[in-house]
């Protein structure tokens, strides 16, 4: 599994990890699960793993499924998975769930809901806990998505936790974003003002057999007509009934149409470059944060500044500037 573009081999002293990488390259799902676990737990060496796998990624189409709680996102993902499995697509599914207050793990466990698909060799399903992340995606979700991409998945479905309008980071993590809502979601025009609705490439009205569905679709289409002036992509509104397995082919056809549209537009390259920029900034910020915390933990000057602030002889803003100057050198090491 050597690669001319690989980083310096820091894993030679870790034969177990090297063995996992070999099995990963051979398409072993257990090895895939172990690597994602290492990434999710932020174990020592996980960045080395990601660096070695990065060159293999970039081929999968990442589809985000988001929307308010109770919209039926999990059932929708299950139906899409059934459809893609019938097309012999290699599919990765990440379901971001709330964090268990007892174990720190995923609370809902979407893999249990998708047991019928778990034995399909072309499908890999993973539940991930938010672990305090407020953006609808777990902190390690992007890295896990890259691992699935490097594994050779054709499509990756990412279902967010469904916490509402704070799920905007999914727009930067995916190629196509599907916002799911139901007839009870309320006035479509008001919903369009919310950030959650503005990130959508495709709108999916699930549970469309309920009262008020047709009216909501008409209202939403009317509002979307105003957006044609700002984007050449005509945002479709697809009605589905996930429980009854209705409208799923139409929904996936819209995803495929959006993919074709993006690949024929300069905006696709811009979107990918923006995602790379976001990833790079996140990696840099995390590295700096760890260095700063380590430097402060062992800093007598830091403890002195706390005492000075408590005594009223200085303030946190001035102290922060002085401390940053002291530790700046260590960040470059």
Give your account of this protein's structure.
The longest helix is centred in the last third of the chain and has 32 residues. It is globular, with a radius of gyration of 23 Å. Strand 6, helix 10 and strand 7 form a beta-alpha-beta unit. By secondary structure, the protein is an alpha/beta fold. It has 3 domains: 55 residues, no CATH class; 208 residues, Rossmann fold (3-Layer(aba) Sandwich), CATH 3.40.50.300; 58 residues, no CATH class. A 7-stranded parallel sheet has the order 3-2-4-1-5-6-7, with helices on both faces.
- In the sheet with the most strands, the strands line up as 3-2-4-1-5-6-7
What is the alpha-carbon Rg in Å? 23 Å
Examine the secondary-structure arrangement and name the CATH architecture of the largest domain.
3-Layer(aba) Sandwich
Major beta-sheet overview: 7 strands, parallel
- Spell out the helices and strands N to C: HHHEHEHEHEHEHHEHEHHHH
Q: State the secondary-structure class.
A: alpha/beta
Strand composition percent: 5-15%
Individual helix count: 14
Cα separation of the termini: 30 Å
Question: Can you tell me the number of structural domains?
Answer: 3
CATH level-3 fold name of the largest domain: Rossmann fold
The low-confidence runs, each spanning 5 or more residues with pLDDT under 50, are 1-10, 99-111, 132-136
E-strand count: 7
The CATH superfamily of the largest domain is P-loop containing nucleotide triphosphate hydrolases
The CATH C-level class name of the largest domain: Alpha Beta
Work out the helicity level.
40-55%
């Amino acid at each position: 599994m050597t690669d001319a573009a690989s980083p310096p081999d820091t894993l030679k002293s870790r034969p177990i990890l090297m063995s996992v990488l070999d099995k990963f390259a051979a398409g072993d799902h257990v090895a895939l699960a172990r690597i994602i676990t290492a990434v999710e737990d932020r174990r020592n060496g996980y960045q080395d793993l990601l660096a070695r796998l990065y060159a293999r990624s970039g081929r999968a189409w990442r589809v985000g499924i988001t929307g308010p709680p109770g919209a039926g996102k999990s059932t929708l993902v299950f139906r899409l998975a059934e459809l893609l499995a019938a097309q012999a697509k290699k599919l990765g599914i990440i379901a971001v769930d709330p964090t268990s207050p007892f174990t720190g793990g995923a609370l809902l466990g979407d893999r249990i809901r998708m047991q019928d698909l778990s034995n399909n060799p072309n499908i890999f399903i993973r539940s991930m806990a938010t672990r305090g992340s407020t953006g609808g995606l777990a902190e390690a979700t992007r890295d896990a998505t890259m691992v699935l991409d490097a594994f050779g998945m054709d499509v990756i479905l990412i279902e967010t936790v469904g916490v509402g309008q704070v799920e905007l980071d999914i727009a930067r993590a995916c190629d196509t974003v599907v916002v799911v809502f139901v007839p009870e979601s309320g006035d479509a025009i008001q919903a369009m003002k919310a950030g959650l609705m503005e990130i959508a490439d495709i709108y999916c009205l699930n549970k469309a057999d309920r009262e008020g569905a047709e009216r909501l679709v008409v209202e939403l289409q009317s509002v979307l007509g105003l957006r044609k002036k700002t984007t050449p992509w005509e945002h479709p509104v697809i009605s589905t009934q996930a429980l009854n397995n209705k409208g799923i082919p139409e929904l996936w056809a819209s995803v495929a149409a959006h993919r074709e549209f993006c690949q024929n537009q300069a905006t696709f390259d811009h979107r990918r470059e923006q995602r790379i920029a976001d990833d790079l900034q996140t990696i840099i910020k995390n590295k700096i944060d760890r260095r700063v915390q380590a430097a402060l933990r062992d800093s007598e000057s830091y403890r002195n500044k706390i005492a000075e602030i408590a005594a009223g002889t200085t303030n946190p803003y001035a102290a922060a500037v002085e401390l940053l100057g002291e530790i700046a050198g260590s960040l470059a090491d």
